[in-house]
Design goal:
- The complex is a heterotetramer, with 2 copies of chain A (about 230 residues) and 2 copies of chain B (about 220 residues).
- In chain A, α3 links the parallel β2 (about 50) and β3.
- With about 230 residues, chain A is of the alpha/beta class.
- Chain A has helices at about 10, 35-40, 60-65, 85-90, 100-115, 175-180; strands at about 20-25, 50, 70-75, 95-100, 115-120, 135, 140-145, 150-160, 165, 185-195, 215.
- Chain B is an alpha/beta fold and about 220 residues long.
- Chain B has a single domain, classed as Glutaconate Coenzyme A-transferase (3-Layer(aba) Sandwich).
- Chain B has helices at about 5-10, 25-30, 85-90, 130-135, 195-200; strands spanning about 20-25, 40-45, 50, 75-80, 100, 105, 110-115, 135-140, 155, 170, 175-180, 185-190, 205-210.
- The longest helix of chain B has 9 residues, at about 5-10.
- Chain B starts with a helix and ends in a 10-residue tail after the last strand.
- Classes of the chains: A alpha/beta (about 230), B alpha/beta (about 220).
- At the A-B interface, α4, α5 and α6 of A face α3 and α4 of B.
- Chains B, D: InterPro entries: 3-oxoacid_CoA-transf_B (IPR012791), CoA_trans_fam_I (IPR004165), CoA_transf_AS (IPR004164), NagB/RpiA_transferase-like (IPR037171).
- Chains B, D: Pfam families: CoA_trans (PF01144).
C-alpha cells in the first residue's frame, strides 16, 4: 500500500490556506491533535472555520488558535470553558454555530458516508428547528439535517500505520474517526506509527482509505480539564 | 427539603436492574453513588463509553479516559468504547433506557429548558437536545425554585426550550412529580417535613394532587 | 453488568413467533447464525419476513428455512444462488424485496441509530426510485430511503462476553453489527463466550447495549461457496 | 479481438498509483492480475475488506474471509476490516477512486444496465447500484456485442437501468471508448487488427471518431 507518511506536523499542515474549513477531532481536551494545532499556530493564516465539538481552553487546544485570531467561525456543540472565546463572540469578532452534539456527530458521519441529508429528532420544537424542514415518521417529529464536510480534517490517534490505518484509545476516539472520513484531506497524527501490516486488520477503527497524511507526533501533553479522583 | 445528594438518592430508586443509563452533569452524576449494589446497570457517557466505573485513584488517572463532563473516569467490567456517531446512534435509537439530567425550567406538558439564558453567554447544548429527544424515560433532577424563590415548574417554559414533551418525572428538593400526559405536574411524594401546601405555593404550573401524598422513603 | 447468557440456540429463539420480522447477519454463507437457523427449523412457525443480504443456498443457511416454507418475504440485495428460492418466487409463494446493498446496509444502520429516513444516490433513475421522493443536493440527485427495524435480529460473532459485547472476525462481520442494533431483541451466537471484562473494551465491534441474548454456538460448519485457491 | 484477459489487461493500464479500487465480478476481477507491480493500489471488497490479497493456498483458506463474489481471499499488508454500512459509506462518500464492473448494456449518455433481464429470474442488484451512483470514475468491461451479434453500446439502454450517466470509459473486445459529456461514444483505441469500420458497424449508439484512432498498446 502507498506510504502516506509525512515528516512532521509542519509538513502535514503546510498547504492549509486561510479561509478554509477544518474539522478537528477531540472531546474537551481528549484526543485533540496537539502537534497539528502547534504547527497551525506557526502559520500565517486566518479566517478558518473549525468544526470541533469544543473550542479548547484559553491556553490549550483550539483556544490557542482563537487567541491568535485565526478563527472566523466555530461549529461546535459546547464551547463553555474559554474566556477569550466569549470575549470574541460578544465583540462580534467570532461567529459560532451551535449544534446538538448528536446532530453534529451524525452530520459529520453523513459527510464522510455520502449521505447529503437525514432526519433526526434532536431539536424539534427548539430554536435549532428554525428554518428547517420537519416531518413526522411513526408519530414522532424529526428535523432534516444536512451533511458536513471539510477541506481538511485533522485527527489524533493512538496507533497508526504507514497505510493510514488508525486505532484510537479510550474516549480519545470520540469525533476522530468520523471526521477522518469527512475531510477532503485527512491528516492523522499518532502516538505510535508502525509499518503497514503490523496492526491487526480486525482492530482498525479508521481504515486507511480515509487518511491522506500521517505522522508520529511528539511531546503529547494530554492536559486534563477535570482531574477527578476517588476519595 | 432534600440536599443535592438526597435528590440523587431518591432518583436512584427509579433505576431498574439491567438498565443502560445516561447521567447528565451535576446532581445526575451523583445518582451513580446511590444505585444499590444488587442492581446491575450500565452507565453511558455520550463521548463514547458504555460502562463508566468509579473515579480513578491517582495512579489510575488516564487523560484518554473521561466522561461527558470531562472528568477522569475508569471503566467498569464489560465496558466498551466507540465513536461519537455510534454513541448518539445508541441514544437516538432508544437503546439507552433512562436519561437523568438537570433543568432550569420544566413545563407542565414536559418541555424542558436547560441550555440557554438570554443575555448570558451561550455555552451550547452539548448532547442535551439529542438525549431529551430520544430517551423513552427522562427524569429531571432540579431545585424546585430558583435562588430568588421563583418556581421552576411552570405552565410554559420562559427560557429557550431544549426539548418538548419529553420529561416523564421530576425530583426536586421538595417533591417527586410526574408529568401527566394530559398536562400538569402530578404530585407523587413530598420531601420529609414539606407540606402539600408548601409545594403548591412553589409550583407555578398546574399541580395535580390526588389522594394522600406520602412522604418520600429512602 | 447483567448477564445475558442463554443456554443455547433453542432457548434463544424460543419466543420467536410466526409472522414476525427477523434480521439475519451474514454475507453469502459467511458470518451467518448457523445455530439459530437450525433452532428455527425445529420450530413450528411460518410467515417470517427475513432481512438478509442473501438467501443462503438450497441446503444451507436461510435456504433451509425457505425449503421448509417458513418464509413469507425476503428483503435482500442478491438472492442468486438458490433454486428453491427461484421456484417459490416464480410460483408466487414467496415475496422478495430487492434493495441495493448499500441502501440495505444504511437502512439497517438507520434503524438501529434512530434515523427514520435519509437521502442516498443509489437507484436514481432506476426502478428502485419508483414511488420514492427524490431531491437534488449540490447538483446531484438522491432518493429518500427509510429505516429498517426488526422484531428480532440474529447475529453471529467470533467472540462475545456475558454482557453482550461482540467481536467479529474477517469479512464475517458484514451486516452483523448493524443488524444487532436494529432488532428490538438481538440474539447473538458466538464461537467463544467469555466473562464480561475479558475482552478489551477498545476492540469491541458491537457494544453489549444492543444485545439481549447471547450463547456459545456449537459445530460451526462454515460452508464455503466459492472455494478459490492460488495456482 | 481481445480475450477477456486482454480486456482486463487493457483496463489495468487505467489504474493509477495510490488508488482505492472496487472490482466487480467477472472480467473486472481479472484486472487485479495485470496491475503493474510498481503501482501501489488497494482493492476494496464491499462486504467489508480493504486490501484484498491473492487467492489463498489450500492451507490459507479461511471461510471467514471472502470477497464480494463469495470467493475465498487473503488480506494484503495493511488491510482493514469493517461492516457493510461503513463499506458503502466509503463507496458513497467517494473514497473509492475507481470502480470497474461488467455490463449488459451501456448507453451513449453513460447509463448502464447490468442487473436484470425481463422474463428471467432476477437475482438482485447487490452493490452495483450503490457503486455506479457513487464512484467518480467508472470503467465498464464488456463484450462489444451479445452472442447473437447485437451491439451492447446503444443510444438508450433497453434493459432495466442500474445507474444513469455514470460510465466514464468502456473497454470491450473491440475498442476503448469514452462517454462524451454531450452524449456519444468517443472511440479512443482499436483492438489489434480491428478496423474503425468494424467498430462502427458493431456500435448502435452514436460513435464519435476524431482523427486517427490508434491501436491499443499493452
Amino acid at each position: 500500500m502507498i506510504n502516506k507518511t509525512v515528516k512532521n506536523a509542519r509538513e502535514a499542515v503546510a498547504d492549509i490556506p486561510s479561509n478554509c474549513m477544518l474539522m478537528m477531532g477531540g472531546f474537551g481536551l481528549t484526543g485533540i491533535p496537539e502537534n497539528c494545532i502547534s504547527a497551525l499556530l506557526e502559520k500565517d493564516i486566518t479566517g478558518l472555520t473549525i468544526v470541533s465539538n469544543n473550542a479548547g481552553v484559553d491556553d490549550f487546544g483550539i483556544g490557542l488558535l482563537l487567541k491568535k485570531r485565526m478563527v472566523k467561525k466555530m461549529i461546535s456543540s459546547y464551547v463553555g470553558e474559554n474566556a477569550e472565546f466569549e470575549r470574541q463572540l460578544l465583540s462580534g469578532e467570532l461567529e459560532v454555530d451551535l449544534i446538538p452534539q448528536g446532530t453534529l456527530a451524525e452530520r459529520v458521519r453523513a459527510g464522510g458516508a455520502g449521505i447529503p441529508a437525514f432526519f433526526t429528532p434532536a431539536g424539534v420544537g427548539t430554536e435549532v428547528a428554525e428554518g428547517k424542514e420537519s416531518r413526522e415518521f411513526d408519530g414522532k417529529m424529526y428535523l432534516l439535517e444536512s451533511w458536513l464536510k471539510a477541506d481538511f480534517s485533522i485527527v489524533k490517534a493512538w496507533k497508526g500505520d504507514t497505510a493510514g490505518n488508525l486505532i484510537f484509545k479510550g474516549t480519545a476516539r470520540n469525533f476522530n474517526p468520523i471526521m477522518a472520513a469527512a475531510g477532503k484531506i485527512c491528516i492523522a497524527e499518532v502516538e505510535e506509527l508502525v509499518e503497514a501490516g503490523e496492526l491487526d486488520p480486525n482492530q482498525i477503527h479508521t481504515p486507511g482509505i480515509y487518511v491522506q497524511r500521517i505522522f508520529q507526533g511528539v511531546n503529547y501533553e494530554k492536559r486534563i480539564e477535570q482531574r477527578t479522583v476517588s476519595k | 427539603m432534600l440536599t443535592k445528594d438526597q435528590i440523587a438518592q431518591r432518583i436512584a430508586k427509579e433505576v431498574k436492574n439491567g438498565q443502560y443509563i445516561n447521567l447528565g452533569i451535576g446532581i445526575p452524576t451523583l445518582v451513580a453513588n446511590y444505585i444499590p449494589d444488587n442492581l446491575e446497570v450500565v452507565l453511558q457517557s455520550e463521548n463514547g463509553l458504555l460502562g463508566i466505573g468509579p473515579f480513578p485513584t491517582e495512579d489510575q488517572i488516564d487523560p484518554d479516559l473521561i466522561n461527558a463532563g470531562k472528568q477522569t473516569v475508569t471503566m467498569a467490567k464489560g465496558s466498551s468504547l466507540f465513536n461519537s456517531a455510534e454513541s448518539f446512534g445508541m441514544i437516538r435509537g432508544g437503546h439507552v433506557h433512562l436519561t437523568i439530567l438537570g433543568a432550569m425550567e420544566v413545563s407542565e406538558n414536559g418541555d424542558i429548558s436547560n441550555w440557554k439564558i438570554p443575555g448570558k453567554m451561550v455555552k451550547g447544548m452539548g448532547g442535551a437536545m439529542d438525549l431529551v429527544a430520544s430517551a423513552d424515560n427522562i427524569i429531571v433532577a432540579m431545585q424546585h425554585c430558583s435562588r430568588s424563590g421563583e418556581s421552576k415548574l411552570l405552565p410554559e417554559c420562559s427560557l429557550p426550550i431544549t426539548g418538548i414533551r419529553c420529561v416523564k418525572k421530576i425530583v426536586t428538593d421538595l417533591a417527586v412529580l410526574e408529568i401527566s400526559p394530559a398536562g400538569g405536574f402530578i404530585l407523587k411524594e413530598r420531601a420529609p417535613g414539606v407540606t402539600v401546601e408548601e409545594i403548591k405555593q412553589m409550583t407555578a404550573g398546574k399541580l395535580i394532587i390526588e389522594g394522600e401524598i406520602p412522604e418520600m422513603i429512602f
